[in-house]
C-alpha cells in the first residue's frame, strides 16, 4: 500500500522556521550543523525583505542605549568588543552560493572567500561602531580569523567604513584547535589584565559572548546561517 505524500503548507513551513530561528538565536538549538532544507526559502526572504536589517538595528539600538549609561573613566580603558564576521562584515553573498547555510561548512572555500576582501559591512553595525567611538569607547576587534589573514581583514574593514579600532585580535598558532568560547575568553582575559574595562560585547555567536572575562553587557546580533561552538 502506497502512503499519501503529506505536503506542508507554506504557512506551516514559515511557522516552523520562525520557531527554529528563535531557537537558534536564543541558543536552545545548540550545536546545530546546517540550516533545515525547508527553511532555505524562508531565510532568503528574511534577508531580502529587510527583516534581518530591522532585527539587527533593534539590537544595536539596545546596545547604544546601554552604552550611554556607562560612566566613562576617561583613561582610554573603557572598551567595547566586536566580533568581525556576521557582526561587522556580512558574508551573506558567500552563503547565498551555499544554500543559505543548508550545506555543511567548508573551511577551505570560506578562507578563499575571505582573502578576496570584498565583504561589505552592515549599516546598523557601522552606525553603532561610530556612535561608540564618539562616546569615547576604545574599540577591540576579536575575530576567529587567522593571523595570516590580518592584512586582508584590516583592508576589508577599512573599505567597509570601519576605522580607529585599538586592537584587532586574531588566532595565532597557539590558538589553533581551540573552541571559539575558550579562545575568545582567553583573549578577553588578556585585555582585562591590561586594564581594559569590557563594558560591552557585540557578536553573532554565543561563543563570541560567553565563557569567562565576559563584558558587563553582551549583545547577540542575528545570525541563522551557521553555528560556532
UniProtKB/TrEMBL annotation:
Keywords: Glycoprotein, Signal, Storage protein. May function as somatic storage protein during early seedling development. The lineage of its organism: Eukaryota, Viridiplantae, Streptophyta, Embryophyta, Tracheophyta. Gene3D superfamilies: HAD superfamily/HAD-like. One of its GO terms (molecular function) is nutrient reservoir activity. This is Acid phosphatase. Coiled coil: none annotated. It holds the Pfam family Acid_phosphat_B. It comes from Brassica campestris (Field mustard). Belongs to the APS1/VSP family. InterPro entries: Acid_phosphat_B-like, Acid_phosphatase_pln, APS1/VSP, HAD-like_sf, HAD_sf.
Amino acid at each position: 500500500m502506497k502512503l499519501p505524500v503529506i505536503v506542508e503548507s507554506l504557512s506551516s513551513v514559515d511557522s516552523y522556521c520562525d520557531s527554529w530561528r528563535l531557537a537558534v538565536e536564543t541558543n536552545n538549538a545548540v550545536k546545530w550543523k546546517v540550516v533545515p532544507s525547508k527553511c532555505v526559502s524562508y531565510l532568503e526572504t528574511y534577508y531580502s525583505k529587510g527583516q534581518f536589517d530591522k532585527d539587527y538595528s533593534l539590537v544595536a539600538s539596545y546596545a547604544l542605549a546601554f552604552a550611554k549609561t556607562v560612566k566613562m573613566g576617561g583613561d582610554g580603558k573603557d572598551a567595547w568588543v566586536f566580533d568581525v564576521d556576521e557582526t561587522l562584515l556580512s558574508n551573506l553573498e558567500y552563503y547565498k552560493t551555499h544554500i543559505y547555510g543548508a550545506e555543511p561548512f567548508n573551511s577551505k572555500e570560506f578562507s578563499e572567500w575571505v582573502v578576496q576582501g570584498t565583504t561589505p559591512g552592515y549599516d546598523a553595525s557601522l552606525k553603532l561602531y561610530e556612535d561608540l567611538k564618539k562616546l569615547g569607547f576604545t574599540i577591540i576587534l576579536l575575530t576567529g580569523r587567522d593571523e595570516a589573514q590580518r592584512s586582508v581583514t584590516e583592508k576589508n574593514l577599512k573599505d567597509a567604513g570601519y576605522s580607529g579600532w585599538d586592537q584587532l585580535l586574531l588566532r595565532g598558532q597557539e590558538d589553533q584547535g581551540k573552541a571559539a568560547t575558550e579562545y575568545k575568553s582567553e583573549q578577553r582575559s588578556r585585555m582585562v589584565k591590561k586594564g581594559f574595562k569590557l563594558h560591552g560585547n557585540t557578536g553573532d555567536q554565543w561563543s563570541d559572548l560567553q565563557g569567562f572575562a565576559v563584558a558587563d553587557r553582551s549583545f547577540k546580533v542575528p545570525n541563522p546561517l551557521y553555528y560556532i561552538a
